[in-house]
Structure formats: C-alpha cells, structure tokens
Input
Amino acid sequence: MAYVAGDTILDDEYNAFLTNTSGTIGINHTMGTGATVYGLGQAALPTVQGGTDSGTTVTAASWNALLTAMDNIGNHTNDSLTARTQVVAGDTIAIKAAIAADLVSLAAEVAGGSTSATAISAGSELQSSRSGTRYAGSHIVEHTVTFANANNMRFFFNAGGKIRVNLTRVANGGGAATDKDDSVDEMIAAMGDFDIASLASTRSGSGETLTTNGFAVGFQDVTTSYQTVFLLTQSSGTYTSMTLKAELKGNATAGSTTNVTIKMSLTDADSGDILYTSGNLSSIDVNENFIGTTDFATKLMLPTTAQGLDPVYTLSGSAATSNTTA
Output
C-alpha cells in the first residue's frame, strides 16, 4: 500500500515501519541490533500486538515513540528529516508526511557510517610505539583494537566512530635534524590524521606521491589478510625512496570480526647509508644519515550521547602487537 499524509495507520502497517529489513528499512533494524551494515545498538521499539491484518489502531504513545526514535537518529547523523509534531490521545493516528522516505534516509546514513555525525569526541591515546633507536632502515608497528563482540564493533563504526593513527618524530637523527628527519617530517605532514571509518579511510594531510590508493578500504572491508590502505612515497625531499605504508586486517571477515589490526611501516630504502666514526676528519655528525626516534600512536574517535544516542559503544581493549626498528 502506498501511504500519504492523512491515511489512518493500523497495527501491521505501523509494525512494518519498525521491523522491515528490506525496502523501507524499519527503524528497529536501523537503530537496534540490525545486521550487515545496519544497527546502532539502541533499544528496539515494541511492536503493536494486534495480529496480522487485525485492523487494530495505533495509540498516540506508540506513534510518538516512532517519531522520537527517528528524531534521535536524525539528530546524531545530522540527517534532515521532515518536520513533524507529536500527537496526543484522541487524535487520529495518521501517516505523517514522508515517513517512508525519512526511514530510508536514516537507514542510508547508518549504513554509510554516519559520516556527518558531529557528536564525536577524541579518546585518549591507546597505544604509542616508538622506534627503539635512531635508525637508517625501517620502523614497523602493529596496533590492535578489540571490541567485546562483533555487534559492538559494528555499532561503533555505524555511529561514526573511527580509529585514528598519528605519526610523530620525537627526536633528531643527529645533534640537529638530519636531511632524513626533514623527509620524515614531510611524510608526517602528508599523512596527517589517518582515520579508519566504516566504509572508507582518510588522511587529513596532503602531498607526496600516493603510490597506492586503497582509501576505499574501511572497517566493513576487512579480511584476515592485510590490505594496503595507502602507500606514500617521498617526492618533495632529498630521500625520494622513503615510503610510509598503512595496512589493515581483522581476525575475521566483516560481520564476524571483533578486532582490527593496523600495520604502519616507515621505510628508508636509501642504500647509501654509512655510520661515520667519532674520529672522522671532517667533523661530520656520526648520525648524519639516520632518522631520529619516531612514534606511531593510536586513539579512537568516539561517538557520544550528546545528540540522541544512548548507549554508545567502545572498545574492550587494545594492544601494541609488534614494534620493530631495523
């Protein structure tokens, strides 16, 4: 049946607005447990118990619960919904304008990872992995973020949650910054904030050569093998063989995975490195060809309850799975 504003709604019609899992996705599938790309872990609305095609009318309380739930999800996702007023006992409970269209829009926002959500707060640093020493080779790190179960992980990403990775250089290669330090700084600026979201990943920085572009890979794309999200190659500095690589995997495929592991690799492939001795006659810094201490750090960008969601979901634990300097 095609509904228009003013049509009286009955129980089976109302229940479809709650429970549909295809077509006009019901609000419970969008905001409740859901499946695949749907679900925010919110309490589901109860259906009206009248039996199929019973013709039972819907109360004002039930109808208002649907409108409130839609508004809450709309507020969090910053989706523009049709303006509606709540009803009171004694009113004819009629279809409000564009209910079906708004339900479809809300489902799409959640399935897309709530990319317009602003009720997001930066969490504290989870893991920090520094290179063991100054180096002329590589610094490779793996950080794992784990959730209590696959549903909680999906709810987190569907609500706009992200895993963020940053790279910093916390010491010089020599007594002063070396040419390689300068190249590392340019790579750091090119990456900026590396964010892993539901359907894609992003970097806030720009520049250098994007040798491999896998930014379409997000949480929903994980497999049990590493996929390259990006490979940046130094292009503006002295050491154009230097690369920064990000890879992503889960402990299962999307829908079943309970963790994500991010592998970050900063590699200095220059073959001309030598370590000068302290007795060199030209007074050259003995670490002139080295990179200073680097640090990969991971945090979460967390959905909050500020605009309608309650509860929100977060990790159960994290680990620095590996940290190798060569």
